[in-house]
Amino acid sequence: MAKHYDLPTLQAYARGDLDERLRRRVEAHLAECSGCREYVEDEQLLGAYLRDAGLWEVADVDGEAVPANLSRVLAFGETLATEDREARELLEGALASPEAFQKAGVGVRLVFETKAVVRHLCATAKALRDSNPKFARRIAAEAARIASRAECRCCVPTR
Fold it and tell me: I need a labelling partner for 121 at 20 to 30 A (CA). Which of 29, 82, 98, 113 fits?
């Protein structure tokens, strides 16, 4: 599989802001990578919510003027925040050291196979790349493995 694209490139793709050549390359990658494809779909969904004219219509809620469809956007944001919080809690002890990471079984236990875990592992690897590059590479490698397995659930061994 080709390299993963960075978030600004995926966001630009979701908005339709890429030149034709890069757009075709990103589309080819999205055809193979469910993790990036799901991220783009989430970005497109959020963009659709924000462009929805009804979102910006004002409604009276408890005496305050608020956008009528704000609850949909807030619910989507809350879902992402909940997933990210659960991933942080799940990984908290596992990211304390390479030994704890190995013992937790991040690369082998199905409980770790979520988009939020992959996002958190990537962010942690980035944060550690200067202070502990070996551990950062190990974390990034596990994130990549989890993301690639998520593309084909039938290939994930059951435990």
Answer: 29
